[in-house]
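Review form for a predicted model. The reviewer records the input and the model, then writes brief findings.
Reviewer: anonymous (R2)
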Amino acid sequence: MSLFWLVLLWLLTFVLGRVRQSRSFKYSRWIPGMLFFRVSLTAAILTRLLLLFEQQGEALIWLRLVESGALYVALVEVFLDVLWLVLARLGRRRVAPPRILKDLLLVAATMLIVAVQLQSQGLLTTLGSAAVLGGLAFVVGPGTASQISNISSALTFQVERQFSVGDWVEIDGCVGRVETVSWNSAYLYDNARDRMIILPNSVIDTGKVINFSRPTARRYQLDIVMGLPYEAPPGKIIAILSTVLDQHPGVVDANDAHILVEEFSDSSINYRLWFFIEDYMQRAVIKSSLFADAWYAVHRAGYSFPYPVEDVRTFADTERRDGELEQQLQDESFAVLRREPLLASLNDAQIRDIVVHDPVLSFGDDEAIVREGEEGGSMYVVLEGTCSVYVNAVMGSKDQIEVAELSQGDVFGEMAALTDEPRKASVLAKGHVMVQKISQRTINDQFLKNGDAMEAFAAFMAHREARRCEFTADQTETYELDLVERMRKTFARLFSSG
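Model under review:
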């Protein structure tokens, strides 16, 4: 073959090698390794150049040996590549045998070819033996014990399928995507710093391996910790962070996400967010975006991310701030109660008296505000959030059925509070809930001592019950009179001492 064509083929090996490495199209994995072809062509080019300048001698003999030997090794490598692809196609799990086995077979074939080549030329003498031993030393490398350990470890974790090329793993504290595994080392690509991490196989075998791509490579679990102020109720913060996760495009399977209260630290309540993403390479970007989204959402809700501070406020400062917060809460409660039809018979001063003397209570997800069967003592108005109303499926049974849902402005517990009867249903918070409590003493002061207000209150409840039970006009009037009488008796008994 002419020198021109040899040079052209030699250049082609670089092109094919780059395509094989980049995997730019689906059949690139069928392209064989180019290293030994390149070595053979290099030796052939040098041989033609020596002949062109009419040079003879041992150099020419050695170049011809390298040319033929490298070509044989290249053909063996092609055979092994094809064999491994076929075995992968025929395998039950579509997975080829460990690559380390192929590498060892190639090494053995290479040494055999070198020995045969030297023997065929009568060169397997002291010089030839040194060349063979030198090749073995190159394969085994300096520090025979450590190299053998690396090879043994590679066989162990590849046969056990601890990870495969393309998996995202954490090994010995290093996180990266497995690019390749040789008989000596594993190569991880760390996209966060755009670098390659090379780990000896013996380190992998003795260290802890976390495979983020198992059991499935369709999603990857991440977690982040956020510290938020003690002033913010945990139920409300969990609802805010849940919305942030639901709306983020990088989070998949948002229903499987979890937000946990992790600890009460010195300056904040720390929340841990567990969620899944689809592209692990985007983990840093998604984490950054979630922190930013959470910041905006928390600030819109009127809170802020805390930072370590020393509280040097005076007692007067603390009292003033607590007073401002209490006044704000009372104003919000007053606005909700003023719109409630059940309290329409009360004037502004009377409603203001309720919010001043009775507390606003906060509840977290699934907390019981009242329970079925308990003695009544207070009624409640929902100020913020949603509640579920449950009744027992069978008398004495623990199984419960949800019969209604309450939201802002809804009243519950009024019948038990007015008549002192056991509560007929349980009310549980759904997420963060705030309710205005109205005690029996407040009811006595604002209704029982105000005849017009009490009659209007009883009339409203009677008409509500009439709509529910389809009462006639006479039945409605009877129910109203009976309710007024029961209210008088209940409160006369409760407050007779006053």
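Findings: The first helix runs from residue 3 to 22.
Further findings: The two ends are 120 Å apart (CA to CA).
Recommendation: see findings above.
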